[in-house]
């Protein structure tokens, strides 16, 4: 189990970054042969990304919902260019997984996929983690205790420096 940090924490991030959210929804659970390869592809990609830091992944958090069967992965990247390069490079695992998905599932409706991409300026976000392990941005960047001057979301979004 991850170490819990009692109290309130935030992430110290002094540069721009990218948030990428991707996932899958199983629309017809009995079509194992279509959705299982999609589900298996993501862990392989994440393993590659975590082994090779030059690819630009800073960190990630994964989530799972049982009904309807849905996965979500939130990932933090150095830049959009790193993310785009990973998606398109035929020598990396995403391009072949995408081609297989389009060939086997395509627009059949059996398996849904989604993604959202956000380019975030260092000054355009705030976060708080209360009684949590290192998580999200705080696990991808620097995990720091909240100081009195950072007590509100407004103070954090305006990047008030710690006391």
Model description:
The protein is of the alpha+beta class and 163 residues long. The chain folds into two domains: 5-13 and 121-157, no CATH class; 17-120, Alpha-Beta Plaits (2-Layer Sandwich), CATH 3.30.70. It is built from five helices and seven strands, in the order E-E-H-E-E-H-H-E-E-H-E-H. The protein has helices spanning 32-51, 80-88, 93-104, 136-140, 153-157; strands spanning 5-12, 17-26, 57-65, 70-77, 111-120, 129-132, 142-145. A four-stranded antiparallel β-sheet has the order 3-4-2-5. A three-stranded antiparallel β-sheet has the order 6-1-7.
Separation, N- and C-terminal Cα atoms: 32 Å
Structural domain tally = 2
Q: What structural category arises from helix and sheet content?
A: alpha+beta
Strand content: 25-35%
Number of helices: 5
What is the level-2 CATH architecture name of the largest domain?
2-Layer Sandwich
Q: What would you report as the Rg, rounded to the nearest angstrom?
A: 18 Å
Oligomeric state of this protein = single chain
The total count of strands amounts to 7
How helix-rich are the residues, as a percent range? 25-40%
CATH topology of the largest domain: Alpha-Beta Plaits
| Low confidence ranges | none
